[in-house]
Amino acid sequence: METKAQLLSFGNFGAKMTRAADRALFLKPSPVVGSARYTRPEPHAEDGVAVCAGPQK
Question: pLDDT of 1-12, one tens digit each?
Fold first, then answer.
């Protein structure tokens, strides 16, 4: 991630990943896509987003 990422947040690891990215001083605020319990959020195209990232086992 160089400037801005779209983050998929679900589960404990996904929540930790989004918090870590938000603390990175060199990144612009990243949009977080969440979802209801036991479901996975779907990424979508967004201007200015270089990468879409989410946790994976």
Answer: 667 788 888 877
Which H helix or E strand runs over 13? helix 11-23
Tell me what the mean pLDDT of segment 18-42 comes to: 82
What DSSP element (H or E) covers 52?
A: strand 51-53
Copy the structure tokens of residue 5: 């990422």
Q: Are 5 and 27 in contact (CB under 8 A)?
A: yes
Q: Is 32 in a helix, a strand, or coil? A: strand
For residue 7, give the H/E element and its range.
strand 5-9
d(CA 11, CA 18): 11
Question: pTM for the complete prediction?
Answer: 0.62
